[in-house]
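= Tokenised fold =
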Amino acid sequence: MKFTINRSAFINKLNDVLRAISSKTTIPILTGIKIVVTDNDVTLTGSDADITIESVLANSDEKLELDVASAGSIVLPARFFSEIIKKLPDKQVTIEVTDGFQTQITSGTAAFTINGQDANNYPHLPEIDGDNTISLAGDVLKEVIGQTVLAVSTQESRPILTGVHLILSENQLLAVATDSHRLAQRKIALPAAVAETHDVIIPGKSLQELSRMIADGNQEIQLRIADNQVLFLLGDTLFYSRLLEGNYPDTTRLIPDSSDTTVELNAATFLAAIERASLLSHESRNNVVKLNVQPEDQLAEISGNSPDVGNVEEQIGVENVDGQPVEISFNPDYMKDALRSFGQSQIKMSFTSALRPFTLVPTENEDNFIQLITPVRTY
């Protein structure tokens, strides 16, 4: 096996694949990067058993300046290999398997020899049928991930809640995440109706890594689903993730269908006020901020108290307040995550009582995006 390639273009592809490689894996060969060379392309593969990323470097891509001298395959230690490639002196790099699994890496005046492993021992990727492929706009998928993954659980005691629940049916994708203290739900219309309904749970960590790989702009992403795997195709890069097994809890009953009090305000302005209030709440053992809504006076006020440091009170600029007075306490970190997901938009907060979950929705499109937060009992 021997090929020469443009070093900086190679590093870009290498960085994508390295996202999937963990030093903590229990399968030693997975600490390596698999390189398979054919006459027409070089395929890089990295995996931690949960996520697998495969990138194809075709010689038709002129930026790569790929020149294949002989085909073959090898698994090289990912950390050493990537560090070597990044520090080489020349703009070209040649990689050649010489004696057994010894691999020579040369660039300019520098030459490294590192020990590799047999690529046949690397776990095989699942075959996922391409007949039922769903197309998604990359920027929309990235937005959906950002708006829902914040609510996944980090507790392994309920593994099912560490994922985002995706339901694809007819012309709609529904994404839901909850850690039992808060919930995020987003619906989007699909460009074409799906042939069959899919109900899957994708680990939140997988979606976060996928989101980082989605380029800005109108990149189209293909989605394919198998029994226990999901595959996202991002151009010449394939992103596989295992699916979580089990039944996701029914979250529809958690979202209130009526409210006694509503407040309309700007998400970014409210976020800034919550960040100020949480400066003190973080010094307190219970980390709680209180919101007091007085519809008669068209008034909303937040307050925070830390016995050791002091207290804070701030009136919030509101567009409209309607319904009954309410005083409600909540975790400001949950509120900040929720508010960030709305960006600069106007939102409506709806309350039923001081101890019932309340919702945040964009005023322009209330049905498609919901954030729900469970209040904190302070007595």
